[in-house]
Fold Triosephosphate isomerase.
Amino acid sequence: MRRKYICGNWKMNKTSSEARDFAEKINEFDFENVDVLLAPSFVSLESFRKILNKKIEVSAQNLSQFEDGAYTGEVSTSMLKDIGVENVIIGHSERREKFFESNEIVNAKVKKALADDFRVILCLGEALEVKAKNKEVDFVKDELLKSLDGIENIENITIAYEPIWAIGTGKTCSADDAEKMCREIRQIINKNYGEISEKIRILYGGSVKPSNAREILSQENIDGVLVGGASLDVDSFIEIIKAGESL
Ligand code: 13P
């Protein structure tokens, strides 16, 4: 069985001191049987990783597809590795929509991350207009295959299905619908990559909270959650970890 993966994406929230307070609290909580990852802002990564319980993985929320040089404002894989960070979230819908990251850019970032031995959480998900036309499976398939174009080895990739209409809105996709899409994603991976589809973890993200985490996490093809808002509060994030552990 795939181990459940409980991931928190803090987006542009929490200063380094707030991140430290969170780390001190979560360090007191012990867990087993699940993997846990947190993605604070770039500026908190180093100090957060140093004080955080080593059981918890720390991830960047983005990285540059370029090696180094004249790219003002960007952060490279080597800068991240130098501070001990080797996980990254790529292709979040907020980056795609608000910072114009196309599938081609996402693909270049995934390639760069994998080439430098990062583990990647690749985000996919449709907007409400797409869902309204019942085109969500086609859309997600296209996003998945274009984001992975030319990539042969996907063992260090985790997929996160995050329907845009469920992010930060309080509207969760039903556990059934989330399971259906995650199953579709697994089948697409199986067709294109074979047996590894049984090992790849597929997460659901979008208004996950303590009250719905257990139902979502108990679905066969949902191997974890990528949590935004509810990961900012240490108690609610711990409740979500406990939901994963209880399965
Ligand atoms: P919310 O949990 O706040 O809906 O955010 C989900 C998300 O975008 C995680 O990456």
Q: What stands out?
A: The chain has a mean pLDDT of 97. DSSP finds ten helices and eight strands in the chain. Residues 9, 92, 162, 167-168, 205-208, 226-230 surround 1,3-dihydroxyacetonephosphate (CB under 6 Å).
